[in-house]
Specification:
The complex is a heterodimer of chains A (94) and B (283). By secondary structure, chain A is an alpha+beta fold. Chain A is built from 2 helices and 3 strands; from the N terminus they run ββαβα. Chain A has a single domain, classed as Ubiquitin-like (UB roll). Helices cover 18% and strands 24% of the residues of chain A. Chain A has a 3-stranded antiparallel sheet with strand order 2-1-3, with helices on one face. Classes of the chains: A alpha+beta (94), B mainly alpha (283). Chains A and B meet through helix 1 of A and helix 3 and helix 7 of B. Chain A: Pfam families: PaaB. Chain A: This is 1,2-phenylacetyl-CoA epoxidase subunit B.
């Protein structure tokens, strides 16, 4: 077993934010300690109303080498952006 | 009086109201003597948070992990912030035109009224945490009682500090259990810290005539009244931490009367140097 504490990713919901946002990472022995550390490290300036922590090793991520097949095909499909529709005057600002 | 926090105990609130109703406000009795007692009790609280805050700050850049380093610095800042309020009020009560800074930086050791516990050297990280834990449980109980003080200024400062100290209690209790019930090495260090610091807990609950006068006026609790609840909480946490409380009832005392160990002198030399060498320096 490693002598280092595992890495945790920290997500904070801001005072006016809609969703939790990733703010950084830290080391802690378990989830309880990770929340306490997150409070001390990432909410010192009144940033948050809620904290999530998750083990970094539990996050499944896309592979950087797979970037082309995953994302490039969307570049040429401009019709997926809803910018070609004419909005009737009476609808007003959307 | 501000609205009482949920944590306030009903009986202390009742006592304070009763005292106020019977006209036992401090100003109603002999004002001079009672103001002096009030001043002393404010120094006991403010000097204790000042010295412990300074001790915490000594860890800055030296803690075992980055996260703990920031956490300890946060606690130091909480305590120094509370000190500004307590010593500010002490200066106001004293009425001699001194400020919180004057009291912090321009008094000598014999004028300090902090508990001997908080001037103990930091020792290892476990030792620092054990000292903090033993103090935090007392500190929260004290503040909860002060939040019902018959003096509005005291009640307001205490209500603000309660939230900070409730977090200190959560943090240090958590770490005491982890380290006490950790591996052989951490257990040994935590037990050694408890054995070394236990003789310094008794002073927190000792009451002299000043404490009694201020308690009678409903301004602060009688320190002795805080002991039973403190013992219950401390015993529960230490049991979970698999640590053994020493048998001895011996208690060092003197801090509240200005009789300190040599350690306070070193703290003050470090803390006060700048103001002593460059009077009035600011930044």
């Amino acid at each position: 077993m490693s002598r280092e504490w595992p890495l945790w990713e920290v997500f904070i919901r801001g005072q006016h934010g809609l969703s939790h946002r990733h703010v950084g990472s830290l080391h802690a022995a378990d989830a309880e300690m990770a929340v306490l550390h997150a409070r001390d490290v990432y909410t010192r300036r009144n940033e948050g109303v809620s904290i999530w922590v998750v083990r970094s090793s539990d996050i499944a991520a896309s592979s950087p080498s797979n970037k082309g097949p995953l994302f490039d095909p969307a570049n040429t499909k401009i019709y997926r952006h809803p910018t070609f529709y004419e909005i009737p005057e009476e609808v007003g600002h959307m | 009086m501000p609205s009482l926090p949920d944590v306030a105990q009903a009986d202390t609130a009742d006592l304070a109201r009763e005292a106020a109703a019977h006209g036992q406000g401090l100003h109603a009795l002999s004002p001079g003597a009672n103001q002096a007692a009030f001043f002393e009790v404010l120094l006991q609280i403010g000097d204790t948070t000042l010295i412990l805050g300074h001790r915490d700050s000594e860890w800055c850049g030296h803690s075992p992990t980055l996260e703990e380093d920031i956490a300890l610095a946060n606690m130091a800042l909480d305590l120094i912030g509370q000190t500004q309020l307590w010593l500010g009020l002490a200066a106001e009560v004293e009425g001699k035109g001194r400020t919180a800074d004057d009291l912090a930086y321009l008094r000598d050791a014999w004028d300090f009224r902090n508990l001997l516990l908080v001037e103990r050297p930091n020792g290892d990280f476990g030792h620092t945490l054990m000292r903090h834990f033993l103090f935090d449980i007392y500190h929260l109980a004290l503040l909860q009682a002060l939040a019902t003080s018959s003096d509005r200024r005291v009640a307001e400062i205490a209500a603000k500090a309660c939230k900070e100290v409730a977090y200190h209690v959560e943090r240090t209790s958590n770490l005491i259990v982890r380290l006490g019930d950790g591996n052989d090495e951490s257990h040994r260090r935590m037990q050694a810290a408890l054995d070394a610091l236990w003789p310094y807990v008794g002073e927190m609950f000792m009451a002299d005539e000043k404490d009694e006068a201020v308690a009678a006026a409903g301004i602060a609790p009688n320190p002795a009244s805080l002991r039973a609840a403190w013992e219950t909480t401390v015993r529960n946490v230490l049991a979970a931490a698999t640590l053994t409380i020493p048998e001895s009832k011996f208690a060092h005392k003197g801090g509240k009367r200005g009789i300190h160990t040599e350690h306070l002198g070193y703290i003050l030399a470090d803390m006060q140097f700048l103001q002593r060498a460059y009077p009035g320096a600011s930044w």
